[in-house]
Amino acid sequence: MNTSATAAEDTASCRTAASSPFAPSAQKALPPCCEASPLGVNYRSLAALLASGQEEQACEKLRQVTPFAGLLAALGDTAAASCCPVLKKNARLPLGETLPYLTRKHPEIFYRPLPANIPASGKKAAVIGSGPAGLQGAWSLRQKGHDVTIFEAAPTPGVTLLHAPVQESASGEAATVNALPQDIVERTIAMLQRSGIRFVTSAPKGQTELRTMLEEYDLVFCACGKGAVLPADAHGQVAERLFAAGTCVKNQKHLNALQAMAFAKKSACAACRLLEEGCTEMSEAQSVPASESLPCKAQKEKAAAASPAELTNMQEEAARCLPCPCQGTC
Known about the structure:
CATH superfamily of the largest domain: FAD/NAD(P)-binding domain
Largest sheet: 6 strands, mixed
Strand order of the largest sheet: 3-2-1-4-6-5
Shape: globular
Strand content: 5-15%
Order of helices and strands: HHHHHHHHHEHEHEHEEEHHH
Radius of gyration: 19 Å
CATH class of the largest domain: Alpha Beta
CATH topology of the largest domain: FAD/NAD(P)-binding domain
Number of domains: 2
């Protein structure tokens, strides 16, 4: 495994959040797809690597941007597509066929857990909800060495990802999408579990319990969906040591899944800054071996070979992206 790539993705997490459209200081001179993508994915940069035969390098580059490429591949980045001068003409999603192919072929990269020996911060964080915002928030908190527990009201973690539409709210302008494949959800949950994140299911938490939870935890991160209404600020802070993201926030009822994840990353980074006295950046630690990064079923399937048709589709999609007029800024 590329251990330096693992360290890079973790130490650069908040920096990536700052370049998202949901951050106030978004980077300039980026391709339209990257500026529009809620997760800040530079699709043209990935296409250039794929077109030059650097498939694994493209996978690692995407993994540095988001640990949830499996979810991204299944959902599709409609915001990035709407701003692409090439794709919006034919209503295609950016690398819409290539991303699912890459995540199937390289699960050892895309479902790789965090290193086993992240320096512990000594802080405990509770995350309420295991939907898109909850999973992203938990991952970002765990990256910083916090002890993270996710409380989920349903009997199974990630259950909201299995129900269409997969988005934080069924209202607003967000497009309805199909439910995610169960194997993607299972692999994603397993990745978080193997990263040291605990799940407590059948454990609903109401707004009236948040203050009580703050007596036990150093931080509470609420991502419990649109049933709650929390007045958070632009960084997701509701009160001291209480943060929120997704449609439980009063002015975020319209967010779709990717948008909720982007705000959750930003909010979790703000929460980490609040706890920074006991929070250490990840070092160039030895990562968990790739063979340990997958659930047993996935280990048996990870060697699946690409078909000629899949390779052709990938090359064609990469070629469509390369003529983008943004090429001078990528």
